[in-house]
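in:
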């Protein structure tokens, strides 16, 4: 305990020592969430200190039914992991399964919540998300009150919410602060956007290559005119478009902001045009 930053107090007449937590580390102050910014709602986000994160949950849910159990994961790192849930609201089997998966991890170290998410998810072969990752305390508390389990990892500003269903990925933390008519309309728009992102490339290939009669004549002539200078087939054009979007996203995150802005501006010019989508 002393190596972990505790102060050991020995009293002459007592057989046991008293350990007092007196450690203090420099850390990032509470700031606005970067990945989940909202207009109406809380502007506080999780930080890398697990004690600060649990205090943010306690500040929102001031109730004795909020249970926070702390365990250590990793034989070398001894990373603190907090399992949070609402007693009498959450399913006990869900809590037991969460504890079982975390306590039976045989790993040397754990550095982030993303690593823990990969270890405890149901299927390691699927590409679909099975948990929710958020850096917002208010969103985490909302799911806790709905009977979910939240996991906090020391050193990571994200919490893991489990389990997750499809509708969870179509909602925003701001929806609860809006009129329910408008919030439902926004969810419907996100659902349309999801369907369009999944099926529009395939529909475009099917219609332009095999079902020209479904396209109005004016639109068909416009597509043919736009493709006159494109040396690639339509299928390869779609692949280029998808890869280009992924490259732009990676460039905006990995490279300095000034350079990424230059790349985006150059990409939008005609000199970078390689398909009819660009």
């Amino acid at each position: 305990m002393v190596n972990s930053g505790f102060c050991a107090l020995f009293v002459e007449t007592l057989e046991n020592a008293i350990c007092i937590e007196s450690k203090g580390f420099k850390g990032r102050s509470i700031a606005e969430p970067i990945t989940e910014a909202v207009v109406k709602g809380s502007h506080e986000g999780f930080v890398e200190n697990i004690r600060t994160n649990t205090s943010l949950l306690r500040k929102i849910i001031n109730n004795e039914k909020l249970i926070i159990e702390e365990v250590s994961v990793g034989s070398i790192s001894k990373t603190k992991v907090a399992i949070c849930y609402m007693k009498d609201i959450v399913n006990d089997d869900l809590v037991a399964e969460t504890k079982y998966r975390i306590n039976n991890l045989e790993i040397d170290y754990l550095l982030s919540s993303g690593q823990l998410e990969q270890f405890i998810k149901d299927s390691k072969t699927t590409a679909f998300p099975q948990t929710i990752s958020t850096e917002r305390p208010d969103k985490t508390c909302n799911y806790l009150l709905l009977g979910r389990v939240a996991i906090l990892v020391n050193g990571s500003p994200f919490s893991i919410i489990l389990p997750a269903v499809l509708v969870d990925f179509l909602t925003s933390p701001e929806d609860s602060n809006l009129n329910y008519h408008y919030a439902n309309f926004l969810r419907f728009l996100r659902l349309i956007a999801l369907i369009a992102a999944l099926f529009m490339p395939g529909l475009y290939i099917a219609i332009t290559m095999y079902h020209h009669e479904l396209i109005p004549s004016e639109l068909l002539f416009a597509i043919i005119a736009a493709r006159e200078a494109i040396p690639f087939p339509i299928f390869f054009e779609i692949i280029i478009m998808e890869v280009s979007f992924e490259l732009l996203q990676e460039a905006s995150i990995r490279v300095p902001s000034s350079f990424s802005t230059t790349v985006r501006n150059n990409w939008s010019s005609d000199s970078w045009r390689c398909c009819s989508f660009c």
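note: Residues 186-272 form one domain.
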